């Protein structure tokens, strides 16, 4: 039963979070510096940290999914560290969605002056 929960959680939560996170990898929050060099450095740091977070989510999702599917197919017991990886994966996927993975609504254009 736990194996099915792990598979469903990874497919329903972690994989869409990865997709949304990759789409929002380079988006800015709207806070710009007056110094162009500092702005580029902050963007590079932001993209690097986001990329590392997405790689960690991808690795945890892969380990959890492969272990759970393998346990289902071979009818074996799930290794004891897989639920820990699964919970960490869900927490990090939630972090991705709530920070840079969500869609921002487009601002409506101001109507032309009459």
TrEMBL record:
Residue spans crossing the bilayer: 6-22, 43-69, 81-100
Superkingdom field: Bacteria
Keyword annotations from UniProtKB, A to Z: Membrane, Transmembrane, Transmembrane helix
Membrane found in the keyword field: yes
Protein's name according to its UniProt entry: Uncharacterized protein
Organism listed in the record: Geodermatophilus aquaeductus
Organism placement in taxonomy: Bacteria, Bacillati, Actinomycetota, Actinomycetes, Geodermatophilales
């Amino acid at each position: 039963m736990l194996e099915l929960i792990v598979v469903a959680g990874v497919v329903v939560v972690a994989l869409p979070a990865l997709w949304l996170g990759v789409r929002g990898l380079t988006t800015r929050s709207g806070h710009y510096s007056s110094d162009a060099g500092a702005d580029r450095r902050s963007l590079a740091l932001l993209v690097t940290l986001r990329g590392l977070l997405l790689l960690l989510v991808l690795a945890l999702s892969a380990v959890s999914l492969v272990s759970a599917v393998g346990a289902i197919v071979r009818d074996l017991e799930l290794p004891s560290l897989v639920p820990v990886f699964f919970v960490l994966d869900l927490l990090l996927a939630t972090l991705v969605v709530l920070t840079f993975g969500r869609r921002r609504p487009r601002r409506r254009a101001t109507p032309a002056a009459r």
